[in-house]
Each structure stands twice: as structure tokens, then as C-alpha cells.
């Protein structure tokens, strides 16, 4: 039994050292985008924040997100699973640290074991073959994205910080109760405190989505996305990045970069691109008075 | 066709191989940037010995400081700014026009933060104390000129000048002198 396991693992290691090829499914036709199409998102890691200046000289804070070995691990389809989705994996992991069930899952897909797996629901025309790597150029500079991740944990926090309560006066006789909740209900009717009453408790560490962040810059060599503004979570957090849901159709990106690469960027187009591409803010000069 | 072929070595370095294994591509396809996208000065990323954020900060400093403004904050350079110097900062009013604004004052603070390095200049204008904080690598800054070197300032941050200015902000004579010198230079070159 042990020898069987070890031989299985040895086979796995040799298998993983070969070139990683993606499988081409039978139903591969050049997919075209329709207004009902939904392409996949990616998993990126939050690397930190910095700033850049746009073409008008305005300083813009940006979050740097890096795509680390982001690959399609499984395709979920209507017949077997009841919905169409892609399971995306991010960041390779050494096989010795991966459980046997998960190793089997990754072997079946023919990809290296990943640290994080997320599903992204897609329309059937946006399905990618297993093993396809998603790169930063899946997004275009100037488009809007949504970023989801667990927020930074803040520990046990009082109601003022957690729910924005007003507290009590600092003086005028208030004794020992400056930051407390105050009243938690009525009197004999209802005679209880309602469920879900906002009180002190653990704050943070929950999933949050920041919507409609603009992609300011794309780095093809380091697989970086610079998004304008802040993104939930700590550094090195796994962030789910998708096309913005509130920018439908032509609003997702400036007209001259549309259509978005569908289902993802073609290798030929990626090869032609320079390393870095910066989005322009557009519009009119904000430092010039409008008449 | 989605066939990304990559060697393990290329993957480990974080660089996706942008060449198909069938290297039968005669001409490299060209990329034409659309109007809403700019292609900045490209550098080759070198991740050896430094983290990702340090690398991109260094590259951005190289890009934004291409006109040599990094020397203003480089202590080993003779043109380095020092707290107490009287400087003249010329800033563009906007990126669309060439009009500039000038501010003269005493440099009271310098903050070294890489790409976000900034300095504060103070002057008394029409009996009102005015402090201007400038980001060193901002594209709106056209030039920074030292009009006079500071003497006798023994601090890195001269915030005490807010309460005890002494004669530090008597700069009208300097400005006049500088204007005359500039006019002479212009006349000579013309």
C-alpha cells in the first residue's frame, strides 16, 4: 500500500515536470462576444499600493494585483453540475504539502497543485479548456473591474467602530458610558431584544466586494494589474477580480479598447503587446476652468 | 485555439512564455496602442534581490525622474536640496497649456519616500504665511532652482520657523536679484 502510494506520488512528480499543455476541447470555435456573454474572472494576489500620475498630472492611488500561475482547473457544465462555471486555481504549491484527494483533483486536470481555488460562473461560450493560463492582459487598461476578498480583521470592536453608533456625551454627567450601545429595545412589549441587534463583536474578516475599480495599468511581464483605489484584504491576499457587473455592454471600457478579449486574450495578441500599458483618464483637463 | 505552452522554468520566474512552441512565426505581430492607452518607457524587470513593490517603485522613479530631478534628493550630489535653502519652484498650471506658476520660499522639510518623495516650501506672502508641499516626481513640476543656499540651519525640519521666523522670509531682494540675472541671461542668449 505504501509502495503504491509512493509510486503514485513519484509518477505525479515526473508528470508535473513536463511542459504544461492545455487541452483543446472538441467544441473550440472562435467565440464571439454577445451582450449576454459573461467571461471568467481571475484570482490575483494583492501586492500593495502605490501611486501614479495620469496624463493630466493628477495623482492616482493604485493597488497592485499580481496573477500568480492562474489556471483553469476544472470546467463545470450544465449536464453534470447544473450550471456553467470555471474553477480557477492560483499559485502553485509543492505536491508534498497537498492532500491526496486534492492531488488527485489536480492530476485529473493536468495542472500543478494550487493554493487557492475559486469558481467563476460563465456563459457556455466563454468556457476555456482546462489548463489555460489566465494572464494580466485578460483585462484591458481602462476597463472596470470588481474585486472581492475577505476584509482585514479588526478583532473584537465596540458598536461605535463596528456599526457607526454615536455613543454618549463626553461630559455633562455621563458616567462610565461614553462609547456604549445605549438602549437595546423597548419595554414589556416586545420584552426581548430582537435577533440581529447591532452590538459589539468581531469585526472584519468577511467577504467584501469593491465595485467598478478602473484598471489603470497592465504589466505583461510580471502579470500585474494596477487598479485605481483600494481593494479589501491584507497584502498577499487572494482577490477575485471580475469584469464590473454594474458596467454593462459598452460602458465596461473605453470604446477603442472594446471588445474585451473573449473568452480570454489570444496568444498572438499577447505576444505583440509591449510590457506595460497605461490607461488614460480621458475627459477634459481638470485643471482648466470650464467656461 | 488556446494552447499556452510553457516550460516550468519560465513559469517559476513568473514570466509567461509569449512564444508558441511551434516557432514558425516569421514576422512578430505589432501592437498599435488605441487612443485611450499610452505605452510608457519600457524597462526590463529584474526581480533579483528585491521584492515586487521595490522593483516597480524603482522603475517608476526612473521613468518619472528621467529629467534628472532625483539629484535634488541625492545627498551625494552637489545640487542636492537641503533644509534652509531658498528655492524657486516652477509648476505647470495644467498639462494642456504651457503657463507656469512660480513660488519662492525657504525649504523647511524634505521627506524621502521613493516615488512619493516630497518637500515643503514656506514663504510669507502679503503678511500671510504660505506653505506649499510639492511631490518631487509630479509631472506638474517644471523646475526647482536653488536661489540661495541656507546657512546656519542645524535641523532637518525647520518647523520652528513658523513661530520664530527671524529674518528667514525676507526674500524680496533675492527675488529681484534673481529676476535681473534671468533677464540678463535671456538678453545674452537672444
Automatic annotation (TrEMBL), chain A:
It is found in: Mitochondrion. Residues 171-185 have a biased composition (Polar residues). Keywords: Mitochondrion, Ribonucleoprotein, Ribosomal protein, Transit peptide. It holds the Pfam family Ribosomal_L3. Its main location: mitochondrion. It comes from the Eukaryota. One of its GO terms (cellular component) is ribosome. Residues 166-200 are annotated as: Disordered. The keyword Lipid biosynthesis does not apply. Belongs to the universal ribosomal protein uL3 family. This is Large ribosomal subunit protein uL3m. It comes from Linnemannia gamsii. The lineage of its organism: Eukaryota, Fungi, Fungi incertae sedis, Mucoromycota, Mortierellomycotina.
From TrEMBL, chain B:
Gene3D superfamilies: 2.30.30.790. GO terms for cellular component: mitochondrial large ribosomal subunit. SUPFAM superfamilies: Translation proteins SH3-like domain. It holds the Pfam family Ribosomal_L19. One of its GO terms (molecular function) is structural constituent of ribosome. Belongs to the bacterial ribosomal protein bL19 family. This is Ribosomal protein L19. It comes from Linnemannia hyalina.
